[in-house]
């Protein structure tokens, strides 16, 4: 047998048959959120049942408020949002699907809770009704987002027709510099290859830099693979992966654990495996980074200056830069650190984990917020851990607002949003126009950089604070 990449191994192990260029794939785990109601409605209309409800997990995260939750769904002021949360509860109960709802002790974001619970394990094919399902590729999974109609098909059949993507390997080697995080790595990569640089590809991350990252850091990398156009972002499992999974609620136990380990260890990419595209990045070249424009590729080291479209030869890119600067109300040549902020948001499925909050708290110790700053844990588990470590007290002492778990200002569909014209340093994954609210302006940064921005009131090189 010829050498295979981990992507090939995962694809082949879930492949059932091929017809007219598409493959029917077996799905191990499906993750739903409030917008997945359309899929449940489609099932009802077709009078179909959920084939394997024990393999479907649902979450209330996108629409739940992050304050005033004592009354549960009944306390949600917006009737439309309230009904979505209630309908999800009803559908989960009707179809026997496990729900991490508002009242659940482990409620949280659909890309943070499943790894915490051990639902995500190496070797699985995971789909979710959300584009950032690619997060779970950090565990050596084939994981990506699908639409509501595809999700309904999975619930009814536990299988999905898919066209096989090409394979790309991104090799990042070297030691990250002081103050540089996984968020800076993925922003630097997207800035290098563009938002369509991985379109049609499954992206495998390799190299000494990736191996040195924690599981939280790896999840951040895979989470934002979709922002480079990738279908899949994945990292081969190793001892860090196994240690993270072991002992969690849904993880294999006893003899089943050893059997699982034996299978997981075979998932590494074979020496000599070939890829359709190779990209390399030097870790030493990466600095604390911030976006200046309206997509994640429009990013630079925070020590840089806003680019001048006049110097760009390509007419399409020049036009994109011009419209981005107009929307962001920035002028060419101004230093990124001169960009003043109205708000700071720390949270999301990209950076709402305990490691992210620790990094932000370490910076928050050095000052006090001069702009409204929200810290939103990614789950109740993260919230409990943070409070046990006293991180909430550090944030509150620094003038940050400590809130309940949810997607919050990342999606701006839950009552948490920017006002028109407000500018925010955010640890989320998208800085599109209107993403955090109509007319809102978003600068993507790492948790440490966000905390630094909060206590300075403008984009700031976190190294100046931590040195």
Mean pLDDT: 97
* Estimated structural class: alpha/beta
Radius of gyration: 21 Å
Backbone shape: globular
What's the CATH topology label of the largest domain?
Aconitase, domain 3
Strand content: 15-25%
The end-to-end distance, rounded to whole angstroms, is 52 Å
Q: CATH class of the largest domain, anyone?
A: Alpha Beta
CATH superfamily of the largest domain: Aconitase, domain 3
Oligomer: single chain
Low-confidence stretches: none
Number of separate strands: 19
CATH architecture of the largest domain: 2-Layer Sandwich
Strand order of the largest sheet: 5-4-3-6-7
Number of spatially distinct domains: 2
Instruction: Let me know the largest β-sheet.
Output: 5 strands, parallel
How many helix segments? 17
- Percent range of helical residues: 25-40%
Describe the model.
The protein is of the alpha/beta class. The chain folds into two domains: 1-287, Aconitase, domain 3 (2-Layer Sandwich), CATH 3.30.499; 290-466, Aconitase, domain 3 (2-Layer Sandwich). It has 17 helices and 19 strands. The strands form five sheets. Strands 5-4-3-6-7 form a five-stranded parallel β-sheet. Strands 17-16-15-18-19 form a five-stranded parallel β-sheet, covered by helices on one side. Strands 11-10-9-12 form a four-stranded parallel β-sheet. β3 (29-32), α2 and β4 (56-59) form a beta-alpha-beta unit. α2 crosses α5 (148-157). It is globular and about 55 Å long. The termini are far apart.
Element layout with pairings:
Layout: H1 6-14, E1 15-19, E2 22-26, E3 29-32, H2 37-46, E4 56-59, H3 79-95, E5 98-100, H4 113-117, E6 125-128, E7 142-145, H5 148-157, E8 159-162, E9 166-173, H6 182-193, E10 201-206, H7 208-212, H8 215-223, E11 232-234, H9 239-245, H10 255-264, E12 277-282, E13 289-291, E14 299-301, H11 315-328, E15 343-346, H12 348-351, H13 354-364, E16 373-375, H14 380-388, H15 391-397, E17 401-402, E18 423-426, E19 441-444, H16 447-456, H17 462-466
Parallel strand pairs: 3-4, 3-6, 4-5, 6-7, 9-10, 9-12, 10-11, 15-16, 15-18, 16-17, 18-19
Antiparallel strand pairs: 1-2, 2-8, 13-14
Helix pairs in contact: 2-5, 6-8, 13-15, 13-16
